[in-house]
Design brief:
- The complex is a heterodimer of chains A (542) and B (227).
- Chain A has 542 residues and is of the alpha/beta class.
- Chain A is built from 16 helices and 20 strands.
- In chain A, the strands form five sheets. In chain A, strands 3, 4, 8, 9, 10, 11 and 19 form a seven-stranded mixed sheet that branches.
- Chain A is globular, with a radius of gyration of 23 Å.
- The N and C termini of chain A lie far apart (49 Å).
- Chain B has helices spanning 23-30, 98-104, 116-120, 127-136, 139-145, 154-157, 165-180, 185-196, 200-208, 211-220, and strands at residues 5-10, 13-18, 49-54, 61-64, 74-78.
- Chain B has a five-stranded mixed sheet, with helices on one face.
- In chain B, a hairpin with a 6-residue loop joins strand 3 (49-54) and strand 4.
- Classes of the chains: A alpha/beta (542), B alpha+beta (227).
- The interface between A and B is large, with 86 and 74 residues.
- The structure holds flavin-adenine dinucleotide, iron/sulfur cluster (2 copies) and FE2/S2 (inorganic) cluster.
- One iron/sulfur cluster is lined by residues 46, 120-121, 123, 125, 127, 149-155, 165-166 of chain B.
């Protein structure tokens, strides 16, 4: 499989395996960590950012790709748009069919609300279904929500919103129990004790998993539950714009992805659970995210006046696939390192403790390749370092990888690489949006009756999220949003008038900031057609 | 780096595409913009089931467009949706046995043991084995064997008995996990402790701390040794 220089480098890695087996590398000191981040983490590169000139977070900086969708016009012309006939009238409109959306819809319905869940692709096509590694929760004797709290805050560099973190760690046991009751197949000991391991930045072993399909198993179960409860859902229906009565959110414009027809929904409350923005490809990084991760919810919320927070920090996962090219950017789960996988350079030497937080780990890989020139060069020119996977089998016995990491194993096997016998090549990839819409502990944004939860919201994880806290986040805050939005809706007789006045205002601001008319958002889907093919088209059926 | 080109037929229409692409990327190269048939792009969501045939071979093959590489003279069509039967139920009220499975999915009885499903599965799951296990009432085995299922529907598309294997599997996994696997007792204990407010004080203290105090606690915190 590997040839030439790569093969030679692999031999060197194999030669050092014995001495690496019991080699201990200490965690970096806070100072070393900081200087590593400042030197090599993309978040510290001024050139990739732009300061927003328009909207509720004016003056704050965000990567250019995000700024481009925030500072953009709607394809709807508010002056001409007909809002007179309402197609659907609901209590709670849930936007997004991932973990947060499904949990919100179930709980809102349980609270007696008349719910509609709309999603851009199919129910479950999401980042949630792709999560492999696990979900955190302090449920063991040697652990507590307080210890979990400290880990979350430390991971987030103490910028996290304490109220949101408190909610996260306090709800965690109940969330796990809820999922267990619903029939999520967690890894367990024969007596029912949850099997838990470490993740980057955890001080206790509190990572729960369902083999290496944790998010998939959760999503399949939640989706089944949404269907069993007959929650009204609409697939291939994107939320394209929110509607307000001038102040409060009162509904949304939906866009049928297939027929291109729009629908007007009147809703007493709206929950944005639209997930992240990996498909914006910040600085051209590849991404682990699903096809619909284009930050639409942030755009919609921003236009009605909901401020964003922490949009200047993106999580790059340290171990994205760097080879073969067909899977470039796809996730190699952190669990590979949690159970003993080691990162080495071209000479087979380790250069960082494997369970540092992700930002530090990613920066260390970038430094090794770009700074120290100790990376392995792949045929496509993509730099990489090794992730020694066979060492896992040495540590835990033959067959461990196939048993505990079946998804990973299969991924590589499809391309002829047996990762239990040979190491794999990795490089950081755009993974998680640390920031998002600013919310309170009930998930309400700064705009009344507009809620946000999951990856679309920001503040829970501060400047850096730990693995396993996001699957937890989506259920904790999905449920909270569902309950709060349903309760609020119960007190509203009828949603107010439906208007796009906020959009007219926003468009005016864009114009005075001299933003060109050509920039349109939300993006809905990324453009991956061959550029020549995408450009050479006639809008003949318009 | 120019790569070698091959001809693929997307729903019968020919396109020249580079050989080293997956079916999904090849279709995008050709100019298709997916709305259906593309979800995760990484073998997790099952949105991209594809049926294809290669030249001079009568056999129909199936695979995931996001994983399968193109081949020269490949004739393909995606099946982005499969209208499979899905029962509705309340897991809480079900017993984990074969009666439950057969009541909700009586068609499981009709399995001919032809193994077409297993041959179709892009996840290399022993699909027929889990269907048979479900039929026998061995819910644990059905759950275990089917665990890696991504609901792509390719098995069902090939089943002469019109069984919707993946929905049967999902039922079994939920039954096993909710009704057979022993509950995590430490979890219930912790849920009760949280409700009683056992951790409130400690959390309140942490929430009031300044960054420097937290940082000190953080760097001094004890890290559990992995076993
Ligand atoms: C490969 C991968 C592995 C991961 N592993 C882990 C892990 O091990 N542990 C962990 O804790 N976290 C992990 N994460 C992170 C975690 O999975 C996500 O952050 C989390 O699942 C996000 O859930 P969500 O419900 O907020 O968003 P999503 O699950 O992404 O759902 C968002 C939904 O909204 C829909 N949508 C988007 N725009 C619109 C629109 N305009 N209108 C209608 N619908 C729309 C999307 O199509 C999607 O269905 C991983 C993420 C990835 C990508
Ligand atoms: S069992 Fe069926 S639905 Fe599940 S992955 Fe295999 S072929 Fe797809
Ligand atoms: S394809 Fe259908 S009939 Fe054949 S073995 Fe599978 S489930 Fe049974
Ligand atoms: S796109 Fe999700 S499995 Fe292929």
């Amino acid at each position: 499989m590997y040839t030439g220089k790569i093969l030679e480098s692999m031999k060197r890695l194999e030669a050092t395996r014995g001495e690496r087996l019991h080699q201990e590398i200490p965690l970096l000191s806070p100072d070393d960590r900081q200087s590593l981040l400042e030197g090599f983490h993309p978040d510290y590169k001024e050139a990739i950012f732009r300061t927003l000139k328009v909207g509720p977070s004016k003056g704050e900086r965000t990567p250019k790709e995000f700024a481009d969708v925030f500072e953009a016009y709607s394809a709807i012309d508010p002056a001409k748009f007909d809002l007179s006939s309402v197609d659907l009238d609901v209590d709670v409109l849930v936007v997004g069919g991932g973990g947060a959306g499904a949990a919100a819809a179930l709980v809102a319905q349980e609270h007696g609300a008349n719910v509609l869940l709309v999603t851009k692709l199919r129910l479950g096509d999401s980042n949630t279904v792709m999560a492999q590694g696990g979900i955190q929760g302090a449920d063991k004797e040697n652990d507590s929500p307080a210890i979990h709290y400290l880990d979350v805050m430390g991971g987030g560099r103490y910028f996290n919103d304490p109220k949101l973190v408190e909610a996260l760690v306090s709800d965690a046991p109940d969330v796990l129990a809820w999922l267990e009751r619903l029939g999520v197949m967690f890894d367990k000991e024969p007596d029912g004790t949850m099997t838990t391991i470490h993740g980057g930045g955890t001080s206790r072993m509190r990572m729960h998993a369902a083999r290496d399909y944790t998010g998939g198993e959760m999503m399949k179960t939640l989706r089944d539950e949404v269907l069993n409860h007959d929650v009204p859902i609409m697939e291939f229906a994107a939320a394209y714009e929110l509607l307000t009565d001038g102040k409060k959110v009162t509904g949304a414009v939906l866009y049928n992805m297939e027929t291109e027809e729009y629908l007007i929904v009147r809703a007493k409350t709206v929950i944005l659970a639209t997930g992240g923005g990996g498909r914006l490809h910040v600085s051209g990084f590849p991404t682990t995210n699903h096809y619909g991760a284009t930050a639409d919810g942030l755009v919609l919320g921003y236009r009605v006046g909901a401020p964003l927070t922490f949009m200047d920090t993106i999580q790059y996962h340290p171990t994205g696939a760097a080879f073969p090219e067909q899977i470039l950017g796809q996730l190699v789960t952190e669990k590979v390192r949690s159970i003993g996988g080691q990162i080495t350079n071209v000479d087979g030497n380790r250069f960082i403790y494997e369970l540092e937080t992700r930002d530090v780990e990613a920066a260390a890989v970038i430094r090794e390749c770009l700074g120290k020139k100790k990376g392995v060069e792949t045929p496509s020119g993509q730099p990489a370092v090794w992730l020694d996977t066979p060492i896992i089998e040495v540590l835990h016995g033959a067959g461990t990888i196939k048993k505990r990491l079946p998804a990973m194993f299969r991924q590589y096997e499809r391309f002829g690489i047996d990762m239990s016998e040979v190491p794999i090549l990795i490089y950081p990839t755009q993974h998680y949006q640390n920031g998002g819409l600013k919310i309170d502990a009930h998930c309400e944004t700064k705009v009344k009756n507009l809620y946000a939860s999951g990856e679309a919201a920001g503040g829970v994880h501060g400047r850096n999220r730990l693995m396993g806290n996001s699957l937890l986040d989506v259920i904790v805050f999905g449920r909270r949003a569902g309950a709060a939005a349903a309760e609020r809706a119960a007190g509203i007789k009828r949603a107010g008038k439906l208007s796009l006045d906020h959009l007219s205002k926003f468009h005016k601001e864009l114009k005075s900031a001299r933003v060109g008319k050509g920039r349109i958002s939300p993006m809905l889907l990324p453009e991956y057609r061959r550029p020549e093919a995408a450009k050479k088209k006639i809008n003949a059926l318009a | 780096m120019a790569s070698e080109m091959v001809t693929i037929y997307v729903m019968g229409k020919a396109y020249e595409v580079p050989r080293d692409l997956t079916i999904m990327k090849a279709m995008e190269y050709a100019g298709y913009r997916f709305i259906r048939g593309c979800g995760c792009r990484g073998a997790f969501c099952g949105a991209c089931g594809t049926v294809y045939r290669t030249k001079d071979d009568y056999r129909l093959k199936v695979g995931l467009a996001c994983q399968e590489m193109v081949q020269d003279e490949m004739y393909l069509a995606e099946i982005p949706f499969f209208p499979g039967n899905k029962a509705t139920y309340n897991v809480d009220k079900l017993k984990p046995n074969s009666e439950t499975v057969l009541k909700l999915y009586p068609e499981v009885f009709r399995c001919l043991s032809c193994n077409a499903c297993t041959k179709a599965c892009p996840q290399d799951i022993e699909v027929m084995e889990y269907v048979q296990a479900a039929l026998r009432g061995d819910i644990e085995k059905a759950a275990d064997l089917s665990f890696d299922c991504i609901l792509c529907g390719l098995c069902a598309s090939r089943c002469p008995a019109e069984i919707v294997q993946y929905n049967v599997a999902l039922l079994c996994r939920r039954l096993y996990s909710a009704k057979i696997a022993p509950r995590a007792k430490h979890l219930d204990k912790r849920v009760k402790a949280v409700k009683r407010g056992k951790f409130d004080k400690e959390l309140a203290k942490l929430m009031k701390m300044k960054k420097s105090q937290l940082a000190k606690l953080y760097s001094e915190r004890e890290i559990q040794k992995a076993d």
